[in-house]
User: Which sequence fits this backbone?
């Protein structure tokens, strides 16, 4: 059992987290859709926003690939290989589903292959 | 007040959105299962865990919040950090506005509720292929895809709460999340500008990992967006000479 955190110790605090996070997230999602409406954005802003997914998601993922919490932050061959295979499959196939499948196969196969190759 | 009749293709766009969401269920499945497991393991009740998935409906932020609660972080830090993880939603919202901005307010409010990484990327790709479609039809497609992702998200959270404990740790389900994100983003690496943005994102995030509460990720996101736009500008300027 993990030690109880200040938030877990009082049920109302969990509800505050859920409601504040729900409202705050919705406001972030609604911000431009709700306030700006169909007025056009400046071309510079549109150009910047084209890069939002490739600018945020790789950074969001990188620490989890290099220092996974499940191994206590130690780099792990299976996870590194799975990440590399997923990126390669995604770039080559342009297919999200194929990339996920390739990555999961690598994740589960590498722990079996590494002892074979090392032995 | 008599509302105008919806364009005839709205229902079809909605169904097409639902179908487009189907392949992503292989993503949402493990992700939601894992959230049910992790939240229950952290000591949350079934009602609290389900409320998390229904009210917040944002996987990465939900995981971030539960992680911080387990780490013993105070209330304000839990909320602010999870919101920081979701700041990208405001950027998504801005990127979708040229396409969905003309739809009725209630449609936009609901589209905002179901706005996620997967339907943002797939939706924007669809709208860039068919920019001429009316805003209402685009919104119907987007909401269809959002519900196609959101309803299974609630369901698998529940399944995760009930059955998640039976999954042994060696299945490395934690890594379904990074694989999903990488698979979503790697087909987008189709130009030098996109690759430059992705590399910058990783490099700056890792360099700023010492900054508290994921704030380095936000800096990296902004720097990487500027990098992508700058590389694009430089390459289009050079092309006529080449």
Assistant:
């Amino acid at each position: 059992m993990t030690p109880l955190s200040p938030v877990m110790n009082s049920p109302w605090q969990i509800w505050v987290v859920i409601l504040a996070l729900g409202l705050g997230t919705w406001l972030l999602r609604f911000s431009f859709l709700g306030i700006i409406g169909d007025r056009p954005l400046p071309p510079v802003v549109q150009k910047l926003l084209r890069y939002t997914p490739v600018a945020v998601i790789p950074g969001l993922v990188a620490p989890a690939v290099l220092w996974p919490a499940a191994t206590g932050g130690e780099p792990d061959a299976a996870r590194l290989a799975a990440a590399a295979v997923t990126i390669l499959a995604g770039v080559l196939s342009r297919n999200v589903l194929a990339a996920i499948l390739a990555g999961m196969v690598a994740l589960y196969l590498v722990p079996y292959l590494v002892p074979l190759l090392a032995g | 007040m008599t509302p105008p009749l919806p364009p005839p293709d709205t229902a079809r766009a909605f169904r097409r959105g639902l179908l487009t969401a189907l392949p992503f269920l292989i993503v949402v499945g493990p992700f939601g299962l894992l959230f049910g497991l992790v939240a229950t393991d952290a000591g949350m009740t079934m009602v609290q865990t389900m409320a998390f998935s229904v009210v917040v409906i944002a996987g990465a932020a939900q995981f971030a919040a539960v992680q911080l609660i387990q780490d013993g972080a105070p209330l304000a830090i839990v909320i602010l950090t999870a919101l920081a993880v979701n700041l990208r939603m405001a950027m998504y919202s801005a990127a979708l506005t040229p396409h969905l901005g003309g739809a009725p307010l209630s449609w936009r409010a609901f589209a905002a509720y179901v706005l996620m990484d997967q339907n943002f990327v797939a939706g924007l790709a669809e709208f860039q292929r068919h920019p001429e479609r009316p805003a209402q039809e685009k919104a119907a497609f987007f909401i269809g895809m959002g519900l196609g992702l959101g309803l299974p998200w609630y369901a698998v959270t529940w399944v995760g709460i009930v059955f998640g404990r039976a999954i042994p740790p060696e299945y490395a389900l934690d890594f379904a999340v990074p694989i999903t994100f990488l698979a979503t983003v790697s087909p987008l690496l189709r130009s030098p500008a996109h690759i430059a943005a992705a590399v910058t994102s990783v490099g700056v995030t890792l360099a700023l990992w010492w900054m508290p509460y994921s704030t380095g990720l936000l800096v990296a996101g902004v720097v990487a967006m500027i990098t992508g736009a700058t590389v694009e500008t430089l390459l289009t300027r050079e092309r006529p000479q080449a």
Observations:
- The first helix of chain B runs from residue 10 to 21.
- Residues 10-186 of chain B form one domain.
